[in-house]
Description:
With 81 residues, the chain is of the alpha+beta class. Helix content is 40%, strand content 27%. A hairpin with a 4-residue loop joins strand 2 and strand 3.
Amino acid sequence: xxxxxxxxxxxxxxxxxxxxxxxxxxDELVSEIKETAPDKKRKFMMRYEVRLTNGExxxxxxxxxxxxxxxxxxNKNKKEA
Length: 81
């Protein structure tokens, strides 16, 4: 299987792990990865824009760690109080 197909198997998933994000980061076919504004529907996920060397752009979602989710929820509760 070619490197491109291996990369596409990861990018096409609904959510990916941090290990898979690191694997994408080290791939030769990826020219840039940057965190973008979070999606309102997926507020407990981080959204990344993956730009390939051939110009294609993909968006991947990584589940936030539990401590970030708890922090956001506690900040939300403090603002409401």
